[in-house]
Design goal:
12 strands, 10 helices, GMP Synthetase, Chain A, domain 3, 24% helix
Length: 429
């Protein structure tokens, strides 16, 4: 999903873009984070946070580890970590003061919390072992789905993550109801010869692991930066005057889009000034029904039952009409507000008629001469048929043809007999 030139070098860092794990597109790590405090000096280096954020499987999962060594690890480095019954390999994603903010966000104690340790910088042997273990994940995923189907369990296996040393496998699955997978774990342990851990995730987490492009044209928020998923309902679309279309409002996970909550607070703050009981207004022509609310212009659009025309009314006018309706008064007409658009008016370009200014006679004359030459050349190259007289050249005239110039004033060749030829001289006596 990122830059196409990224490649993995011997040390595990991307080699193509030479960005050491933090390219601008985030392709090296889906949950990529820019450490904007990395180049700022601190007065007390000893007070620096010793907890490091590590990412696994290209940002699919994050965890926190304690740096008990004397080394300082930079973003993008591959390190060997303390795992379950062995060791694991991950990429450094975040260090320094930003880690403290993340710990506070996740309610983790920096000093009293139990964190696994960072052992050392990953060696070539550790990276080779990790690459060998990652190559087994695709086959294990296919086989695990087949075993779950044989047991007729209502679950969907989404991803399999194998530890770098190959001793532990984590199976991420999706299920609507509670699933008894005790028998499934026994089959997985005997089939793959690893320690099995089952983790249930939701449809949104699955979409974040798979990745993709959203309807906005950008990468999915759940696979790039969004870590906590809040519930989204159709009321968020109603408050924003969006049509309740399940196809357009649903994301790739099949749930309502998370971006429906991004601007919801702004709409709720703006809708506080709009009257709540103004869905129907009584006028002399009939009832006016509310169509939509425009929070940017503070207008409410109404339409009458017998027409499709929409009338924009200000909030003050709606409150005034509502107060009159309570007194039994029906106004004659709806006093609409003037809608001024901020869009600049498009000026139509002026077209000039230049057809009459261009003479095509010279082009036509050249084309006619070229065609005549080609026709004469073809007639000369054409062989004479037996019994056929040879063809004369195109420029020669036939025998007996009048070679006199035509009379431009009359029709046909030669002078007109019925017309006088001008004044004649009298005969000499």
């Amino acid at each position: 999903m990122g830059c196409g030139s990224c490649g993995t070098g011997k040390d595990g860092a991307p080699g193509g873009c030479q960005s050491h794990g933090h390219c601008a597109s985030g392709g090296c790590n889906r949950m990529n984070v820019h450490d904007w405090l990395a180049n700022l000096p601190f007065s007390d280096p000893e007070s620096n946070c010793r907890i490091v954020e590590i990412t696994f499987n290209n940002g699919s999962r994050k965890d926190y580890f304690k740096n008990t060594t004397v080394h300082y690890f930079e973003k993008g480095e591959m390190v060997a970590l303390e795992g379950t019954g062995g060791n694991d390999v991950g990429m450094v994603n975040l260090t320094g003061e930003l880690v403290r903010l993340q710990l506070k966000k996740n309610n983790l104690d920096e000093k009293g919390g139990e964190f696994k340790k960072i052992l050392r910088k990953a060696t070539e042997q550790d990276l080779a072992k990790m690459k060998e273990s990652k190559a087994r994940e695709a086959g294990m995923l296919i086989r695990s789905r087949a075993i779950a189907r044989q047991l007729k369990l209502e679950l969907k296996m989404a991803e399999v993550e194998l530890q770098a040393d190959g001793r532990k496998a984590t199976f991420f699955y999706i299920a609507d109801d509670r699933v008894d997978f005790r028998e499934l774990i026994k089959l997985y342990a005997s089939e793959f010869k690893v320690k099995v851990e089952m983790r249930q995730i939701g449809a949104r987490q699955e979409a974040g692991k798979v990745g993709g492009i959203g309807s906005c044209g950008r990468e999915l928020c759940c696979s790039t930066w969004l870590t906590d998923f809040k519930s989204v309902n159709t009321n968020a679309a109603r408050y924003q005057n969006l049509s309740i279309n399940q196809t357009k409002l649903s994301g790739q996970c099949g749930r309502l889009k998370c971006c429906l909550n991004y601007e919801l607070d702004t709409y709720l703050d703006a809708l506080q000034f709009f009257p709540n009981d103004a869905d129907v207004l009584e006028v002399a022509k009939g009832r006016a029904f509310l169509v939509k609310k425009d929070i940017f212009r503070n207008l409410m659009w109404y339409t009458l039952s017998d027409s499709n025309k929409q009338y924009p009314l200000t909030i003050e006018m709606v409150k005034k009409i509502k107060a009159q309706n309570k007194q039994g008064i029906r106004p004659e007409e709806l006093e609409t507000a003037e809608v001024v658009t901020g869009k600049p008016k498009e000026v139509e370009p002026e077209y000039a008629d230049i057809v009459g200014q261009i003479s095509l006679r010279s082009l036509e004359r050249t084309t006619r001469k070229r065609r005549e030459k080609e026709r004469g050349r073809q007639q000369q190259q054409r062989p004479a048929r037996p019994g056929e007289a040879p063809r004369a050249q195109s420029g020669a005239r036939k025998e007996g043809q009048d070679n006199r110039p035509p009379n431009r004033g009359g029709q046909g060749r030669g002078p007109q007999r019925n017309q006088p030829r001008g004044p004649q001289r009298p005969p000499n006596k």
